Amino acid sequence: MKRTLICGALALGVGASPFAASQNDIQPGQWQMSVEFAVPADPGFKQPPISRNQCLTAADARDPSRLVTETSVPGATGCAFSDSKESPGHLEFAVKCEGLFAIAGRGSVDYTATSLQGTLDLDFNAGEMGERKRAGSISRLSARRIGDC
User: Would you state the pLDDT for residue 76?
Assistant: First the structure.
């Protein structure tokens, strides 16, 4: 479950994930998620935070990919997580995606049973087709349980 929230900031579409163990730290229920997106190479770039609510079921606790499809990076497909390191209340991981943006990078989150905060440091393809170049981004995510579904 904790990883489900973490991945909500990615909006990637992951099939299988190494994060499927020990999700009993995050509570199922209605969660409010928010992602702020920044591009360090372009300080003038401003995008409003993306927020949404989602009901997390007990099944979500066993499959972190369930939130990885809608929040911040549409167009990413074929994502795979690797190099996960977990300690109580903390998770770090690498992610790589195919698709339009060819996203790759690392994420780190701190969580409790009812809240989560983290950062994703990602590189992606930017620009018009034929003129694409790699760009970097930093996404700051937060989530909190707001009640039952």
Answer: 67
